[in-house]
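Worked problem 6 (solution included).
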Amino acid sequence: MTPPTAEAEGAGAAALGAFDEGRAAFSARDLAGAHAAFERAHRRAPRDPRFKSWYGLTLVLVERNSNLGIALCGEALRAAGPDPDLLLNLARAHVALNQRERAVRALLRGLELWPDHPALAAARDALGTRRVPVIPFLSRDNPLNRVLGRLRHRWRRRGSPPCDVSPVALGLPPPPPGEEPRS
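Solution. The predicted structure is:
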């Protein structure tokens, strides 16, 4: 095996710099800037699972390329094994595609392995859990249960602050009381 050349090390450093730039842009909710930075990082180091996962997530969010984005997130998970950040990115991509059940599955898989991971717990809390049907002996799809469930939901939400379930905010801790969530 030959030692890495200075050019290969420079490409790795450039990829890491682009990745850090993308994370900063994502945190600032500049999705287009984050997508461009993650694309540069992925092109410079296409085998790195972190770069692949973040690029896949921004593909879904920015370009609406759901097939390639989900495929890249899945490849990253298979290459790196279960990782809390990669599972969170997969859940974010599923939320963006309105696939709540798959997002919950990804989060629960992560929480089985890392029960104390704060980002996974915050994402699970933001998505919420299904309550028992109002009339338990009727099916969840029964029209009476559906109407009463909506009423119960509205009644419980009336005094609570709005919850941000956007893919970008998923996994971030909730804002302190009295502060509006960032958009």
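Discussion: Residues 6-157 form a domain with the Serine Threonine Protein Phosphatase 5, Tetratricopeptide repeat fold (CATH 1.25.40.10).
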